[in-house]
Specification:
The complex is a heterodimer of chains A (144) and B (108). Chain A is α+β, with helices and mostly antiparallel strands. Helix content of chain A is 22%, strand content 38%. Chain A has a single domain, classed as Sandwich (Immunoglobulin-like), CATH 2.60.40.2470. Chain B has 108 residues and is mainly β. Chain B has one domain: Sandwich (Immunoglobulin-like), CATH 2.60.40. The chains are: A alpha+beta (144), B mainly beta (108).
């Protein structure tokens, strides 16, 4: 089977476009699967606040708020903050307890590149919620 | 971790059950272990990997930090002031050293 030069180029381009996101999701998917422990992540209950463009990728402000009554019957147990394009994507995990905890916080993270930031929240009944936002980075935030 | 952490608390004498905001910033280089010296050798990783806050020993928040957290880790968090007492915050370094701050919370 012969390919013209044009067909070969189109084919190579298609492989690059399709395989890049799949590759990026490998490590991240493993983190999500481990956190979710067999429960399919659902939309909702999460407010993830992060700028569209990171002026300073060394300190990108992230705001997190989980909608939960935080009673012993119904509370948010843990959240995971994942920067999908970082060398170590699992940036932070936070745990809460019913009683004194309020599942609302903000912090600052480093982003290596333009990428998606994902937040997972696990409730005491095992249900898992997910939110995902893209952040554009103009310069790398991981030193070097 | 020689400079003491900087702490801001929205209300040190809240009403019972009031949500209190705490901002905590600790000075730390958060060396990722990915950077190289001019000679080419890797600078070893040294980060704060854990932060814990309790009120009278009851858990408020636990934070597992990884290399993606910014230099001088900053956290704004909240808690319900169900009782008066000691709000204890502990930062733990990769080298196991810790920094501890205790803030008194009274009820109005």
């Amino acid at each position: 089977m012969d390919f013209t030069r044009r067909e070969t180029l189109i084919g190579a381009f298609a492989i690059c476009v399709v395989s890049a996101p799949l590759f990026a999701q490998g490590a991240v998917k493993a983190i999500i699967d481990e956190f979710a422990a067999g429960n399919a992540p659902q939309q909702g209950k999460i407010e993830l606040e992060i700028p569209f463009t990171a002026d300073n990728p060394n300190a990108v402000p992230v705001g997190i708020k989980i909608d939960s009554p935080m009673t012993s019957q119904s509370y948010c147990r843990e959240v995971a903050l994942i920067a999908e394009g970082n060398p170590r994507p699992l940036v932070s995990r936070f745990s809460f307890e019913p009683g004194l905890s309020v599942p609302q916080l903000s912090t600052r993270i480093r982003l290596a590149d333009t990428q998606h930031v994902t937040l997972l929240a696990k409730m005491n009944d095992g249900s898992v919620f997910i939110a995902r936002k893209e952040v554009t980075v103009t310069a790398g935030g991981c030193g070097g | 971790m020689s400079t003491p952490p900087r702490i801001w608390i929205s209300n040190r004498s809240p009403k019972k059950g009031e949500v209190v905001i705490v901002r905590a910033l600790v000075a730390h280089a958060m060396e990722t272990g990915f950077r190289k010296r001019a000679s080419g050798e890797l600078i070893p990783r040294k980060i704060i990997n854990r932060f814990d806050c309790t009120l009278n020993g009851k858990p408020v928040i636990s934070w597992h930090l990884d290399t993606g957290v910014s230099i001088n880790p900053y956290l704004e968090f909240r808690f319900k002031a169900e009782e008066a007492g000691n709000l204890k915050m502990i930062w733990t370094d990769d080298d196991k050293s810790t920094v501890e701050v205790i803030e008194k919370i009274a009820l109005a």
